[in-house]
Design a protein that fits this description.
Blueprint: E1 2-11, E2 14-24, E3 29-33, H1 40-47, E4 55-60, E5 63-64, H2 67-70, E6 74-77, H3 89-99, H4 104-117, H5 133-145, E7 151-155, H6 163-178, E8 182-187, H7 190-196, E9 199-204, E10 207-213, H8 214-220, E11 225-230, E12 240-245, E13 248-252, H9 259-268, E14 273-279, H10 283-301
Helix pairs in contact: 3-4
Length: 302
């Protein structure tokens, strides 16, 4: 759906986006990760046509990106919300839907569908300034998806939402993806991405420092750490013992095959095994390792 090729964006002497290339598959949920100021929003503004790249190319559904042609197929929810505070909610949703090319009849039908689905049907005549941050967030989400975009870009979509409404929006994101919508989810909250995204790109100082499928990345950075919960004492010397908490033991092995020796030991000792699993690194841990490695390489070249 989206093919970004060697994109660059400069502000004065700062490289906000520095030679970024990404491919986002149709119908996938793609995570764009990185700390605040990493260049995520600058990249998304170019994808949506708000700003133009200084160098590079964007392909939308196999075609060179043309603002007038392709922008109506994009739904973009920026981190800085863009709602008119004095305007009534229903009128505002209708206005924004028509800006995306829907007729008034289509817009009303789609808005009513989403308002009913997200329990917003009683909000029509309220003003945005009377809404809480979480309620405003739900309205912003509706105005972003109301025209059935092919590409949905969500920048920090859970900011201000309580846990219940966060789950509601997560469910809607998955349902839209299952129906074929391609979704880019931008955030600095990496634990959220692990729950939602299939593929990711980690961005630091305008560069992609790591990318690929979440499951593959975790396998690539694993350290052969395993956790065993067993009834009884263990005296197993064939692996590096790290720690014990009650009946829960953590071991580090040289290879995956060596972990089977621990299980065989427990069976030979007739120790009841409650659980045994590999400990995979979190995306946050992987990102920190990558950023530290990148910083070290930069330092070595100076």
């Amino acid at each position: 759906m989206l093919d970004i090729q060697h994109l660059k964006k400069y502000y004065a002497t700062q490289k906000a986006v520095d030679d970024v290339s990404l491919r986002v598959r149709k119908g996938s949920i793609f995570g764009l990760l990185g700390p605040n100021g990493a260049g995520k929003s600058s990249l998304l503004r170019m994808v949506t046509g708000i700003t133009m790249p200084d160098e590079g190319k964007i392909l939308f559904d196999g075609e060179d990106f043309v603002l007038d042609k392709h922008s109506r197929h994009i739904g973009y929810m920026p981190e800085e919300r863009g709602l008119y505070k004095k305007m009534k909610i229903g009128e505002q949703a209708l206005y924004l839907a028509q800006l995306k090319g829907l007729s008034k009849t289509e817009a009303l039908e789609n808005i009513r569908y989403w308002f009913n689905k997200l329990d917003m049907h009683s909000w029509w005549n309220k003003k945005v300034e009377d809404l809480s941050k979480g309620m405003s967030q739900k309205l912003q989400f509706v105005t972003t998806v109301v025209h059935h975009p092919k590409l949905l870009i969500l920048d920090e979509p859970f900011s201000g939402l309580d846990p219940v409404n966060s789950e509601v929006i997560k469910d809607e994101i998955h349902e839209l993806a299952n129906k074929g919508t391609t979704i880019i989810f931008s955030t600095h909250r990496m634990e959220q991405v692990e729950e939602i995204c299939e593929e990711i790109a980690l961005i630091h100082q305008g560069k992609v420092v790591l990318g690929g499928a979440v499951s593959e990345i975790k396998q690539r950075f694993k350290e052969n750490l395993y956790q065993l919960q067993v009834d009884g004492e263990i005296q197993y010397a064939a692996a590096q013992y790290l720690q014990r908490e009650g009946n829960q033991y953590t071991y580090k092995f040289q290879s995956e095959d060596e972990s089977r020796g621990l299980l065989q030991y427990c069976l030979d000792q007739r120790l009841p095994i409650r659980s045994f699993h590999e400990i995979l690194p979190t995306l946050n841990q992987i990102f920190i390792r990558q950023v530290e490695g990148e910083a070290a390489r930069i330092f070595d070249t100076k």
